[in-house]
Structure to design on (494 residues):
């Protein structure tokens, strides 16, 4: 007998955390209904299609392929049964704003030569840095990511002490990176992935140098059809497991408790035994639950450090963009000012660091023949005012910067255009202050300092998604869904 046979569960929100938890719960025998506010599943991994162009609206980097293998493997499947993968070459291109340009390749020796060209000894330093990164990754994933340690008692364990030895658990990424590289450009190259964690070099724990193993060793991949194809694959898996999907149905209230929940939506109500919320956690607590059922008040959320929002320009353009790679980063030679304008003194960046994605470089189906599909993403502070005049002004800033620093002039070639920024994140995803990612990975917001998967105010209510462990990023949200489902089975399984 399956452990959750006879139990009904509502999963609120169809992001990767919700899709993942729904699969695990259904596999455990639960009757699972996933309820999604928007017409598409995938949460921030939505897809925009217009006039033959297809854009990933959110995540666009397929990293940590081992995490996806592990997810599908749990159900005796493989990712390639649902989508095809191609390793990118180059992994990405970087334009520095002093005119310098560098490609990072799926070839460690070539990357070592690149590092050496900037700083004598940096090639060997990169190898040592990646050895530490690999150790952090292998130990960290097994003992601190796939093993959920979200309560203080979970850390009172000899395995924790044993496996934590040698890991870069304390200190900032900036301090850690300075131990290996002096050249600011090399520091930036190994720190750029912090954007995916919603942090800065000075507020992200050094443990997250593990992301360099993800980047340099595990590689950067592209799923045919974009990240939307990954969403479709997980949804198809859920279908096979018996998950019922309800889209275009916003949840307005969560009432009751274990064995007697009533999930109110714009279309009616769902009466279920248990609830897993993958919606923005602050929204769930502050808007969907009665005050007596909330774990935290408004001040709790106000005091948190949130990951950046983003200014996004989705552009369909005539012709090719030969200067750009599939993934391109444009970085000021000193990017600390941009991070200060996100975390310390929130304002629209004057000299932004940003990311350009051109999936039509790899996938012909992303744009009509003779055209290119690209989007620009500028990390910005959450909560900024983004009225129409501000959007238009910043559009000009971004297009000017792209032309000046990559040599790609887009203005007279744009045939499709859409802007998406702070208020859109808040409206579409109910995200706190329009954050694009959730809670940042600061030292005081990592591991047991992140919100728990179990509600301590309502029995039978659980949380998945980027607010919970292990945190931000598509693979991490997949794992958060596993943790949330495991808690349900632990508490209510037969």
């Amino acid at each position: 007998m399956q452990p959750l046979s006879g139990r009904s569960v509502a999963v609120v929100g169809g992001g990767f955390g919700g899709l993942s938890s729904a699969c695990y719960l259904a596999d455990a025998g639960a009757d699972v209904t996933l309820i999604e506010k928007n017409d598409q599943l995938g949460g921030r991994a939505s897809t925009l299609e217009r006039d033959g162009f297809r854009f990933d609206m959110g995540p666009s980097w397929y990293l940590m392929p081992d995490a996806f293998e592990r997810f599908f493997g749990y159900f005796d499947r493989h990712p390639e049964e649902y989508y095809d993968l191609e390793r990118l070459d180059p992994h990405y291109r970087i334009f520095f704003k002093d005119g310098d340009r560098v490609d990072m390749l799926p070839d460690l020796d070539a990357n070592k030569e690149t590092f050496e060209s900037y700083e004598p000894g940096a090639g060997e330093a990169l190898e040592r840095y990646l050895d530490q990164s690999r150790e952090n990754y292998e130990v960290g994933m097994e003992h601190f990511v796939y093993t959920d340690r979200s309560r203080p008692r979970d850390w009172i364990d000899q395995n924790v002490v044993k496996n934590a030895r040698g890991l870069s658990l304390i200190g900032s990424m900036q301090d850690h990176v300075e131990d290996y590289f002096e050249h600011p450009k090399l520091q930036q190259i190994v720190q750029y992935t912090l954007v995916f964690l919603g942090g800065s070099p000075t507020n992200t724990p050094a443990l997250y140098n593990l992301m360099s193993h993800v980047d340099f060793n595990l590689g950067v991949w592209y799923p045919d059809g974009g990240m939307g194809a990954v969403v479709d694959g997980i949804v198809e898996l859920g279908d096979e497991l018996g998950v019922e999907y309800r889209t275009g149905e916003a949840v307005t209230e969560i009432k009751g408790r274990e064995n007697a929940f009533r999930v109110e939506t714009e279309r009616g109500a769902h009466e279920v035994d248990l609830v897993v919320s993958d919606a923005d956690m602050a929204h769930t607590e502050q808007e969907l639950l009665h005050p007596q059922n909330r774990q935290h008040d408004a001040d709790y959320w106000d005091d948190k450090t949130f990951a950046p929002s983003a200014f996004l320009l989705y552009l369909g353009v005539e012709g090719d963009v030969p200067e750009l790679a599939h993934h391109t980063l444009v970085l000021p030679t000193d990017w600390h000012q941009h991070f200060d304008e996100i975390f310390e003194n929130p304002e629209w960046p004057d000299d932004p660091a940003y990311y350009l994605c051109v999936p039509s470089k790899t996938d012909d189906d992303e744009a009509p023949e003779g055209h290119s599909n690209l989007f620009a993403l500028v990390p910005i502070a959450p909560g900024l005012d983004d009225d129409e005049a501000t959007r238009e002004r910043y559009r000009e800033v971004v297009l000017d910067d792209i032309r000046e620093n990559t040599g790609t002039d887009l203005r007279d070639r744009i045939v499709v255009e859409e802007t998406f920024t702070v208020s859109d994140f808040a409206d579409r995803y109910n995200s706190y202050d329009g954050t694009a990612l959730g809670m940042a990975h600061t030292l005081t917001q990592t591991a047991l300092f992140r919100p728990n998967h179990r509600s301590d105010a309502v029995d039978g209510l659980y949380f998945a998604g980027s607010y919970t462990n292990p945190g931000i990023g598509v693979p991490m949200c997949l794992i958060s869904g596993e943790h949330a489902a495991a808690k349900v089975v632990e508490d209510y399984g037969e």
The first strand starts at residue 8 and ends at 12.
